Amino acid sequence: MFGLFRTTRRGAAVRRLYGAIVAQARTPHFYAACGVPDTVAGRLDLLMLHLALFLRRLAGEPDEMRPLGQAVFDGFARDIENQLREFGLGDHTVPKQMRAVVESFYGRLKAYDSALEEAGNGALEAALARNLFAGEVADPARLPHLASYVRAVVAHLAAQPATAFAAGELAFPDPGGPFD
C-alpha cells in the first residue's frame, strides 16, 4: 500500500514536470516572434528542445534522479505515440515512427549538448537552425535570441534544486527575455 502511494505521488510529479515542458514548448512567442514554424514538426522540435534541456539538467544529479528523468522521457514517448495514433497511424506504422522520433530526440540531445559546451553561440545557433526549422530557412536575425534563450534556460534550470523537480516543480524563463 505504501509503495503504491509513492508511485502515485511520483507519477503526479512526472505529469506536472512533463506538463510544464509541454506548456513552455507551446508558448506563442516561439512561433510569433522567433519564427519557429507553427506546425506539427515545429511544435515537436520545441518540445524535444525543452525536454533535452531538462534531461541535461538532471544528468548532473546523483543516480537516484535518473528514474525521474526516465519517467519524464517515458511520458513524452507515450504522448507522442498517442498523438501518432490520433493522426490515424496503424499498429504497424507507429513503432517505426516512434523509432524515428526517439532517434531524432537523441540526435538533438547530442547536438544541443555539444553546442552548449562550446564558447559563443555559433554552434548553438546552427543546431537550433537545423532542428527547429524543419528544413525551412531560419531567419538569421532571430537565431541569437533563441540561442540566448537556450542558455538562459540552462542557467535557470541549474538554479532550481533537484528536490523541486522531484516534487514536480519546474519553471522556465520567459522566452521573450531579456537574458543576462
TrEMBL record:
<feature type="domain" description="Ubiquinol-cytochrome c chaperone">
    <location>
        <begin position="33"/>
        <end position="172"/>
    </location>
</feature>
<dbReference type="InterPro" id="IPR007129">
    <property type="entry name" value="Ubiqinol_cyt_c_chaperone_CPB3"/>
</dbReference>
<dbReference type="Pfam" id="PF03981">
    <property type="entry name" value="Ubiq_cyt_C_chap"/>
</dbReference>
<dbReference type="InterPro" id="IPR014569">
    <property type="entry name" value="Ubq_cyt-c_CBP3-rel"/>
</dbReference>
<dbReference type="InterPro" id="IPR021150">
    <property type="entry name" value="Ubiq_cyt_c_chap"/>
</dbReference>
<comment type="similarity">
    <text>Belongs to the CBP3 family.</text>
</comment>
<comment type="similarity">
    <text>Belongs to the UPF0174 family.</text>
</comment>
<protein>
    <submittedName>
        <fullName>Ubiquinol-cytochrome C chaperone</fullName>
    </submittedName>
</protein>
